[in-house]
Amino acid sequence: MIDQSELKIVRSFNASKEQVWHVWSDEEHFKQWWGPKEFTCPDCEIDFKIGGKWLASMMDENGNKIWATGVYKEITPNEKIVFTDCFADEKGNVVSSEVYGMKGVPMEMLVTVILKEVNGKTEMTILHKGLPEGEHLTGANIGWNTSIDKMEASFN
After folding, report:
1. Residue 28's domain is classified under what CATH number?
2. Which site in 14, 16, 18, 39 is 20 to 30 Å from 115, CA atoms measured?
3. 94 is in which domain, residue-wise?
């Protein structure tokens, strides 16, 4: 049984595991898809190693940015990435979600990305742990899925 505070998304791509891995590990590719459909990602820094940090912004059409950061906890090449997910300022300092007008989101959540080859396609499972139930879980589900739509488009 999935913990109620865990969001699970499974998607399949006509792309190799290496291609899918690359969009997570390469700053320029990450910028192409990070953030819900109505956002862009103008800023991204990735130190892709265990203990390394990532920092990215999501910018809306008015130029407002929401920053996120985290630390890579586990990396198994072309198979698994585990990292923390936190709201941040532009310098990468962890901040409360309330800075962005969202109450009740934990200071730190955990995201696991698992890649498998299934019937000639790459299946990607994202587990986002620690989200509060209700509107934040619903919003994260929409945000991840529209981000993944942009990711999928980047393979074409």
Report:
1. 3.30.530.20
2. 39
3. 6-154
